[in-house]
Amino acid sequence: MPTNVTPQVPVTVGTFTQRLSSTPRGARLARHLVAHRLEAWGYAYESEANETVTLIAAELAANAVRHGSVPGRDFRISLCETEGRTVRVEVTDQRGERVPVVADATVDGEGGRGLLLVAALAERWGVESCRGVSGGAGGPGKTVWAEVAVGSG
User: Could you give the CA distance from residue 45 to residue 132 in angstroms, rounded to a whole number?
Assistant: First the structure.
């Protein structure tokens, strides 16, 4: 095997970004827009890929609204599909000091399961500070992201 071979970087074949109000209505709209965009990319509404990515996007958007909102500021949702058939979901909110963690959800608790679902369904997920964007000139907030292998459309 040659040692001078450069690893192939996946080619982006589709992107989608939308700013939405940091309200429950904005989170619901994010879920619908993600499902619609995935359908347009060839992942039928009832497919496992569409349902998985949409569920992850819905959980991340709900967390952005519930835990990351600042009055009068929107959140942003982005999708990126690569040629290697991975979809990356990113949700950016304004509360960088509130870093999400996977918590132990109680059996009777009403919340705390969102990131457990994300961790179980995504190949990888993480959090990035917006201050790290553009050499530290990003601004307040954070981006929570998840990557899902979706196979063929």
Answer: 35
Provide Rg for the chain, Cα atoms: 16
Q: Which two tokens stand for residue 111?
A: 């919340």
Residue showing tokens 């050499």? 135
Exposed / middle / buried, residue 141 (Cβ in 10 Å: 0-12, 13-18, 19+): buried
> Of 6, 132, 116, which is closest to residue 55 (Cα–Cα)?
116
Cα(111)–Cα(54) distance, rounded to whole angstroms? Answer: 19
Place of tokens 């959090």: 127
The neighbouring-strand residues paired with 87 are 81, 148
What DSSP designation does 41 have? T
**What pTM did the predictor assign?**
0.81
Residues 85-94: tens digit of each pLDDT: 899 999 999 8
Q: pLDDT digits over 130-152, tens only?
A: 765 444 445 678 899 999 999 75
